[in-house]
Amino acid sequence: MKNLIDKLHQENFLSAEEFHRLLANRSQEDEEYARNLANQVRQQVHGNKIYVRGLIEFTNYCKNDCFYCGIRRSNREAQRYRLTEEDIMTCCAEGYELGFRTFVLQGGEDPFFTDEKIVHLIQEIKKKYPDCALTLSIGEKSEESYRAFREAGADRYLLRHETADPRHYRRLHPYEMSCEHRKNCLRTLKKLGFQTGAGFMVGSPLQTIDDLVEDFLFLKDLDPEMVGIGPFIPHKDTPFAEERRGRLEDTLFYLALLRLMLPHVLLPATTALGTIHPKGREMGVLSGANVVMPNLSPVSVRKKYMLYDGKICTGDESAQCRSCLSGRMQQIGCEIVTDRGDYKKK
Ligand code: SAM
Ligand code: FES
């Protein structure tokens, strides 16, 4: 399979048949080969720089009911919260002090936060921190809403497609959601000039190799500036409570393939990866990832934004998380940089 890994490295592309062959037949040795190659590409393109994003989880109310997610609307056990504008500005102030130059506002799809409220928040943050990038991760909205957010100054948008296969999508989401709509949202975000992030869960229930092939081909076609992937991890109060979590080795291998396919992409070593293995994020970086996203949310709400069981960093202060990650990155010869860390054009 090394020939296919080399081909992906050289041509940044494989056909569906080639992806299928690689995913179905790779050995442990092939995985290691891909990871080392991806690590080299990361170093060639991005040096030893790791970009840092301050994640502010500002609401765990959600109108959606995704079967895998701990903050789905049907989970009556979830203790719901919303941060006020003042709370959010305090998180940004703390983050700025700690050297963050990107803030990510993430939340469930919470109708309380109308477009007007979001626009106002964007304007306030961008007015106070003009040297910072602002990323939104608040789900599926209309083109008008996305345009209003962009015009207010938001720079980036994260919306994982979760799975590119419509049949698989249907097994993970209730009927009112659709794969095509989510993909269209991503295309709209790109059109409006957002640095756009898509991505999928690794090892989500019923995921097949064909589904993964579609994920890679969809990402190649969309050509996003950011890709977020992480292992699926069950949450005890969801329909998928008894399902198996995604594998570490698979996640690292797919991170490596993404780096080889999209050499310039901003690719986080996710919290979910750090949750399934104590060195998961370090291994993610050594497999091609170049972004980390420590939590800036107030400690008082962190345990409530429980997307899956065992989520790490829910008891730590932002400063602790920041210095913990600096130390972790230093240990593997990398350095967290104080920089907006925008996508660099080829
Ligand atoms: N509501 C926004 C959205 O839909 O994009 C952002 C919040 S959503 C909770 C953020 C991401 O969490 C999802 O895109 C999904 O991939 C991930 N996630 C949710 N439940 C998960 C689980 N059980 N295991 C791993 N990742 C999960
Ligand atoms: Fe949060 Fe290590 S990153 S404590």
TrEMBL record:
InterPro entries: Aldolase_TIM, Elp3/MiaA/NifB-like_rSAM, FeFe-hyd_HydE_rSAM, HydE/PylB-like, rSAM, rSAM_sf. Residues 48-270 form the Radical SAM core domain. It holds the Pfam family Radical_SAM. It comes from the Bacteria. Signal peptide: none annotated. Keywords: Iron, Iron-sulfur, Metal-binding, S-adenosyl-L-methionine. Transmembrane segments: none annotated. PANTHER family: 3-METHYLORNITHINE SYNTHASE, BIOTIN SYNTHASE. This is [FeFe] hydrogenase H-cluster radical SAM maturase HydE. It comes from Blautia intestinalis.
